[in-house]
Amino acid sequence: MRIAMLLAVGLCAASARATEALPAPDARAAYSEFRISLALQGWKPGRDARTGPTCTSGRTRICETFAEAVTCQRTTPSRCLFLWKKNATQIEVETVGSQPYGIRVDQMRCRAGCAEEGPPWTGIDR
């Protein structure tokens, strides 16, 4: 009985670690600063530059600067998408802007492993 209870507690603790709360950036935070904040909270880039070419469209300087970039559309203003992961949770961070160190966080979305509550996209207050 004691072993069963310990196993149940262990499973509950493991599932609690599997879902992570979405990080909360300041309104229109600079992505270059927000990514440092993510790293300090234990988040890791969701893609690795060594796993293949960086994102395939548009703003190549942004894609070359940030290994976690997935796509970056050549629009005005540009919209780029970055992946981050922590334990079993994966998030997408969408930015607006055209220069690598001038892009700003616009919204975030849980891609996998997040708690059920909350909207799928979290817009950043302007």
Automatic annotation (TrEMBL):
Signal peptide: 1-18
Keyword list, A-Z: Signal
Domain of life: Bacteria
Protein known as: Uncharacterized protein
Native source organism of the sequence: Methylobacterium isbiliense
